[in-house]
Amino acid sequence: MYQQLLSFFPKNIHPLTLVSDPDRLLGGEQIMLELVQRGFQVIQEGDPVVLRHRVEEVRPFSQEHPVIIITSGALEDMPYDIYQPAYRLNLSLHQFFPNLSYPVLQTLNPNQIEKLASCQSPFEMLSRQKTINYLLREVFDVDRVTISQPFGLIAWLNDYHYRQSPLPELLRTSLVEQLKRYPIYLNWEINLLIRDVHAFVDFIQHQWQESVEQSLSSGTVEEPASGYHVSFYSNPKLQDLVPGLVRRGIIQPLEISEIKSYPNWAQPGISHVDVRVQRFAALLEDLVNHLVTMKSDTPIQTSWNNWCEFARDWAELCSYAAQTNLPILSTQKEAFQKLFYEVDPLFASWLKKNYTALGGQRLPRPHHVHHVPHYLAYLRNLGQIKQVVLLVLDGLSLTDWQVIKSVWTKRHTNWEMKTVNLLAQVPTITSISRYALISGLRPADFATDLAHCASEARAWELFWSREGIAESACKLLPLNYDRQIDQQPEMHDPRVNFWCLIDDTPDKFTHNATLGAADQQSSLRLWLDPSHDQNALPLEKLIDSFLDRGYSVFIASDHGHVEATGFGQPSEGLLAQTRGKRARIYMDELAALQVQKTFADTILWKNDGLLPDQMTALMPTGRNAFALSGEIVVTHGGISLDEVIVPLIQISKASL
């Protein structure tokens, strides 16, 4: 299917191609990347005003700079001056998968459709249920024989949650029904274990802890007398899973002070030292191996999901490294520092190749911060949410979220927190990336004159007004915990259903961290400590309040941050629009090139399909900064993994 689909888009033939793609066949990462590599500029806009603006921006159409306009509706509904000169295509799942049930196929997301395209197609027409079984087997790697036993189901769940490719509800329901037919699963909450990774982690950790504690109390390593769901001690196949469950963080090793004999298979899940040290070592080894694999691939072969997996483990590793009381070996510190120098150029190379393509993929899963409002509107149109709170934690990195989540998970046991990763706007500075996040616009749509943009509050109202929401129902509010202002009455305004709340606490920790990343992380942990005067409890109570009133709460970040070392400051007078430590913006490329002559260890970033054509960003490579030579700063603006990949979190309350 992949090559057949690409054959509709030959290079340098059609100046304008108009595509009706209701099933999002062009939404997969690889197909979009290939189209960009072929020189196409892809436009997808549901709002007719924004669409008109984008189209006029890329005129005149030419074979050298071809344009693809994608719509989910009928081609005839497009404006005539676009419809008439275009090469027109209608795409449908029916064309490529004629032997599979169309309604079932429609539940898959674009990346799952891409995986389906690589599978052997059935030779005969399949019914609805047979299509479901086929997709479970081919796309989600469900072996019905293997998962009929706990070891097989746990192994599959471990891989399933790591891949972060959620089963559509239709397929999940069918799988749960099939598993419930096995007597061994009658008391298992199968649906919850599939739907919620935290429930799966809690379940496995609880079973492991009870097994180990039972063996301690009995004095022998044997299967506890009470009926466990997961019988580690009697099943060699379950025992084989323990190292993998520990490496993925599903099992946290138990600290056991008593020295006794444990079988070899149990050793990974038991520690006689600080479990953080053991986890740090495992993460470090895994990331070194992961990096070796990604180095052997090209930037095109390495997928966004590969980097999301790497970034997730990298954030956890960095959270341990920043703990000053963690006894890390000198050899481990050296290996960790070496990772820094290897990760940054590899990620930068990948980002240059893939950033533009991912910037165009906003539904059904967002990939970029400016997709967030569109994603919320999409969920609203599906009827999944009604009232929304978008809480922007300015400067929240994945490492920060790793620390916050670990505390909130224990403090709010009824909160369910689902996280996906997004790309921040490059350059990763607040004035551009946060505005893109709130407005739902590319910088090309607003950043030609940063000094005269509409306010963020107005940008939030304008986005929802384009969705048919009255401006009185939308409000943006900066949170002011440190000014003794009671904002509660304002936030209980019954007219407002679409809130955007700005909390710049993480960004303050970043810019006030004069002693480096450890200083920033220390401030974050103090903020999470209820005994500290300025703490996170007011924010947590606010989230709880909105959840209790039926709002859907999302937390987003506009950028992360890094610890960097100064290598000098340019003196370009008034030529730079902004003068950040990790990025300087110019509206004259020649001015940027002139500065680059003096600062050779920099990256020139422009023409990425999101920034205005005349805008150029100059950013230091690696972990350097435009600061006094040798000065240590914690800042943002560049294209490191820590600055660019940021979390989007949905918080809901578990039904009791």
Can you walk me through this structure?
The protein is an alpha/beta fold. The chain folds into six domains: 2-91, no CATH class; 102-138, no CATH class; 146-271, no CATH class; 276-348; 360-562 and 643-653, Alkaline Phosphatase, subunit A, CATH 3.40.720; 563-637, no CATH class. The chain is 43% helix and 14% strand. The chain is built from 26 helices and 19 strands. The strands form five sheets. The chain has a six-stranded mixed sheet with strand order 8-19-11-7-10-9, with helices on both faces. The two termini are 45 Å apart.
What's the number of structural domains?
Answer: 6
Distance between the termini: 45 Å
User: Which residue ranges are poorly predicted, with pLDDT under 50 across at least 5 consecutive positions?
Assistant: 219-227
How much beta, percentage-wise?
A: 5-15%
Radius of gyration, in Å, reads 26 Å
Integer average pLDDT: 89
Total helical elements: 26
CATH fold descriptor of the largest domain: Alkaline Phosphatase, subunit A
Architecture of the largest domain in CATH?
A: 3-Layer(aba) Sandwich
Please identify the top-level CATH class of the largest domain.
Answer: Alpha Beta
Largest beta-sheet characterization: 6 strands, mixed
- Principal-axis shape equals globular
Looking across the biggest beta sheet, what order are the strands in? 8-19-11-7-10-9
Query: Structural class of the secondary structure composition?
Result: alpha/beta
Number of E-state strands = 19
